[in-house]
Amino acid sequence: MAGAIIDGKASAARLRERVGAEAKAFEAAHGVRPGLKVIIVGDNPASRAYVRTKARMAEEAGLAGELIELPDTTTTEELLGHVERLNADPLTHGILVQLPLPKRIDEALVLDAVHPDKDVDGFHPLNVGRLFSAQKGLPEDLLVPCTPYGCLYMLKETLGADGLKGANAVIVGRSNIVGKPMAALLLSADCTVTVAHSRTKDLPSVCRGADILVAAVGRPRMVQGDWVKEGAVVIDVGINRVEGADGKGRIVGDVDFGPAAERAGAITPVPGGVGPMTVACLLRNTLVAARNLAGG
Ligand code: GUN
């Protein structure tokens, strides 16, 4: 039996609406809109498209969104200068530096320079530490990496918060952006968590043990239909551009969607699954940052 398709667009619209209403209340109380600055370096067309969407969605939700586009020749020092300026700007509550950065730039140095209170990506070591040391669920004021937060949000909507308790969750991929923070979030929701990766032995059978399967490897359709346990909830984080039989480019996930959907209880599509949720969570983080900076 084919599983339900999880509608990431609809989930994201609900979250954006909630954030929009709360942003309005923030503006009424403090006289400023929560402000998000998105920095992009270089001219990767896919990254440029993502950041434009981020800034536009912020504006549409009643936040102040601004895009700062820097040339490919930007140095680490120049980028650090922009970050420092925004750290000191009282109208900037959230700073996002789009990844990947050009190879020349010292990425760790730049991410560490973003003030932890304005770190709407949740990538600063202080926020990573807070996430991994959270003991009793997730603190409301925590800045959590957007993509895994979006995945958790959809899992809770699909299974209910109690549906995650004790579930076997397998994450394929151990990146700092998705895999590792996803593990912390699923632990905080009382899942039993396995983080699998390129060196994992017998990956298909590890995946077959999953009640919740999160694919975040960046390899088109790597997770096969028969890796999916009957009734499992499958979250596909992949955004891979492939060439179709007609020679045209199209976007596919890390999961072989058709066969996986036959076995899954519920599954996210690509596009229209995790992607829209990531942007909605960024807006949520900007609101949280603004509240934290304003003293709660
Ligand atoms: N590139 C791909 N995903 C992300 C993200 O969540 N944040 C940033 N800053 N860059 C990304």
Short structural description:
With 296 residues, the chain is α/β, with parallel strands linked by helices. The protein has helices at residues 8-30, 45-60, 76-88, 107-113, 125-133, 146-159, 161-164, 179-188, 203-208, 257-263, 274-293, and strands at residues 4-5, 35-41, 64-70, 94-97, 168-172, 192-196, 212-215, 233-236, 240-243, 249-252, 266-267. Guanine binds at residues 96-99, 121, 146-147, 177, 278.
Question: What do you see in this structure?
Answer:
There is one protein chain. The termini are far apart. The mean pLDDT is 97. By secondary structure, the protein is of the alpha/beta class. Helix 2 packs across helix 11, helix 6 runs parallel beside helix 8 and helix 6 packs across helix 11. The strands form 3 sheets. It has a 6-stranded parallel sheet with strand order 1-11-8-7-5-6, sandwiched between helices. Strands 3-2-4 form a 3-stranded parallel sheet, with helices on both faces. The site of guanine has 9 residues, from strand 4 and helix 6. Guanine binds next to strand 4 and helix 6.
Secondary structure elements and their pairing?
Layout: E1 4-5, H1 8-30, E2 35-41, H2 45-60, E3 64-70, H3 76-88, E4 94-97, H4 107-113, H5 125-133, H6 146-159, H7 161-164, E5 168-172, H8 179-188, E6 192-196, H9 203-208, E7 212-215, E8 233-236, E9 240-243, E10 249-252, H10 257-263, E11 266-267, H11 274-293
Parallel strand pairs: 1-11, 2-3, 2-4, 5-6, 5-7, 7-8, 8-11
Antiparallel strand pairs: 9-10
The chain binds guanine.
Residues 96-99, 121, 146-147, 177, 278 line the site of guanine.
